[in-house]
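Reviewers of the previous submission asked for a worked example of the structure-prediction workflow described in the proposal, so we include one complete record here. The input consisted solely of the amino acid sequence. No template or homolog information was supplied to the procedure at any stage.
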Amino acid sequence: MTTKNKLKINIGPQHPSTHGVLRLVLELEGEIIKSCEPVIGYLHRGMEKMAESHTYLQYLPIVDRIDYLSGFFNSFAYCNAVENLTQIEVSKRSQYIRVLTMEMNRLSSHLLWLGTFLLDMGATSPLFYTFRDREVILSLFEELTGQRLMYNYYTFGGLRHDVSSDWLDKITDFVKIMPKKIQDYENIITNNPIFTTRTKNIGIMSKNSALQYSITGPNLRATGINVDSRKTIHPFACSPIQLIYPELDFQIPTAQNGDSFDRYKVRVEEMKACLKLISQCVDWLKSNSGEVISPIKQPLLKVPEGEFISNVEAPRGVCSCYVKSDGSTKPYRVKWRTGSFYAVQILPKLLENAFYPDLMAIFGSLDVILPEVDR
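From that input alone, the workflow returned the following C-alpha cells.
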C-alpha cells in the first residue's frame, strides 16, 4: 500500500529471517523506516492456560517448549516456584547439576544465535562453525536426558537421575577446546569491516529506553546496566538455598553503547563466562557426592495454597514463572514472563528512522525466540 511517498509493506510472518512467525508492518519513506508495528500471535499455544488443566507433574514436560533453545531454564523456574511453595529442599549436588546444565544450555543458545545473526547479514560460514560446536553440547544433552531440545530432566526436589563420571570427563574435554573456537569466531567477525559497519552505532538502545521497556539479559547489559539475577538474587524471587551461583567465581560482561555490536560483544563474552562456570561445576561434582533423586511422590503432589514467582537469568533475559496454588493437585494459575516479548516491544523504537537494510541486523542482535512471545 502506498500513500504519497510512503510505502507500507509486510515482513513475515513467513520471511526466513524473522526467526519464527513474526509479522512486521513497516512504513517506509524511500529506504527509511518511519514506523514498525510488530504483529504477534501466529504461534500461540496456550502454554499458560494449559497449566490449569494439568497436574503439576503433567505440566512439567510442557515448559521446555516455551523457549525451545533454553528448556533447562524454563524447567528450573517452574520447579523452583513449586519447590518454594511446598518447602522442598534441593540437594547441593542437584543444584550444581542444574547450574551445569543451564550454563551449557546458555552456551548452546548463544552459539545458535551467533550463527543465525551472521546469517541474517549474509555470512554463511559462521553458521556452520557454531552449529558444529553446538552439536557437541546437544550430543551431551542427548546422552544425559535422551533428548536434544525438550529435556524434562529436572523434577520437583531433584533430577531424573545422576550424571556419570564419563559424562563429566567429556564436558571437561569440550571446555578445553572451546576457548580456541570462540577466538576463531572473533577473528572472523569482530573486526570484520562489513560486520562493524552494519552493527556499530546501529540500533542504539539507551539506558532509559531499556529500563522503560523492561529489557533484561544481554540486551540490557549492552547498555551499561550491570544487572544479572545470577549475581543479584532477591529473596522474593528465588530462595538462596536453591541456587549455588554465589559460590561460583565469574564476572558479568557489560558494554556501554547499546548498539547491535555491543549486544554481539556481550554475548560472546558470556560464552567465555559460561565455560568458566561449567568448569567449576564439573570440578565440584567430581570431588563431591550426594543424592539427586527426589523422595517426593511426584504424581500425587499437592501444593499448599499460596503464590510464588521464581526468576532465573535465561539466555534472552530474565525468565519468571509465577505459580498460584489453591491447594489442589493442579495449578490455579501459571504466568510466564520472558525476555523475548519485551525485545519485540522495543523493536519499533530501535527501527525508527533506521535504514531498511538494517532491519534484520537490529532484529537479529536482540535474539528473539517467538515461542517465548506467543506463550
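Residues 235-241 have pLDDT under 50 and may be disordered. We consider this example representative of the routine output the project will generate in years two and three.
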